[in-house]
Amino acid sequence: MDQSGITPNTSNQQLVNGSDNDSATALLQEKQARRRENLGDVSFREYMTVGILCFVNLINYMDRFTIAGVLSDVKTEFNIGDDWAGLLQTVFVIAYMVFAPMFGYLGDRYSRRKIMAAGVALWTMTTFAGSYVTNYYWFAVFRGLVGIGEASYSTIAPTIISDLFVGNVRSKMLAFFYFAIPVGSGFGYIVGSVAGAIAGDWRWGLRVTPVLGAAAVVLVACVMQDPERGQAEESTMKPTSYGDDLRALVRNPSFMLSTLAFTCVAFVTGALAWWGPLFIFLGLDLQPGVNISKESVSLRFGIVGMLAGACGVPAGAALAQRLRARLPHCDPLVCGLALLASAPLVYLALVAVSSPALTTPTYILMFLGMFSLNLTWSIVADIVLYIVIPPRRSTAEAFQILISHMLGDAGSPYLIGVISESLKRSLSGGAAEAASRSQQFRALQYALFLTCFVEVVGGVFFLITTNYIVRDKQKVDRAIAEAEVHSSEASHSQTHEKNVSGE
Asked: pLDDT tens digits, residue range 40-61?
């Protein structure tokens, strides 16, 4: 067996070969035959656990994009430009990605329930406290603290699902879990704009999710199931050293390539989610005779994003499940084609928004572009879980979060803002503040064109992944089976020795 992609485990599950290969193969086939392939086989408590994880994921993304729904008010409140407005999201994501590896390490070794409950409590309290801060710099600090709390949850939650289910049931549960991301993001825009409009103060939008977060802490701490690592696959593998984990991940081509591809997804998602409502408002505001408010644009954008995610995430999972029997490498193939399809749709939406006759087509194009982008979410999560051995999955999730956010949405809102401010100065021939409404729109439009190029790059990375995905998945399946054979033989040997000594 080619074990180049699997770091030898120094504990009691050293991989075996030779005559044990036949036993491992037989055990692997037996496990595959025992897999639960129907949702009817899922217990009530397992459904409850997935439901709790989805609920927390929903409010997680509601909180993350509430500010994007009231970004114009935030800019006015703190008297900042596009660059400093983009920096708010960048600070959040930097804190999120920096602390993700630490929580990934802890999640592979300690109680995931306690870690998640503490993390949700942290971001709930800091979100609420941050809503009362009046200084921009302290407000940015509190957004960073929110990122730390959310990192504890996002790195661990998918691994709990992976330890409860395998095969198509796991894919369906992951689709349900990631379904909450676009829906939560859409609710974030809606809650931010509607709550702010009702209360007459945008800060009230930040005080909705903390109430839901308090309930989430109780559910995680008291109701959620925390299974043994590798329980669904009946894995006996134990954690290796952190250094071994990282070396194995770096040598895993499917993991590295899919991580780079997902980094492109994160870049585009972060940029469009942050700047989308403001960009559409600027475009519609240029049209003659159009009377529109920032709140109404945020509401519509949130609904479009929510519908695109609600349709795209399960559609991607269902398409991949349908194709796997005929195309074992279909997961990255579907993701790659989805990104390549999304790029021209997003470009056309960015171009059409300022045309009076194309207001409705703009929202349709934006829906289709976001729908294609959302096809990738649950599939990428599934890829990471089946190409990495069970005791290494939280670390893998954390590593992917670090890379995808560091090179993706940590910088994309700020980068788009910086490019926009630079183009304002260029178009106006003076200071950015002197730019007309038309020049502000054009500057942000040209800056957002960068997302289309990044989508094409991500699609190429996914297509390259198709060359390695089947081999790397087979390595993991065989590693789990061989480790169990070795563990079983060691147990039988110890029993035999005891019997002999007893005689």
From this structure: 677 888 888 888 888 888 888 8
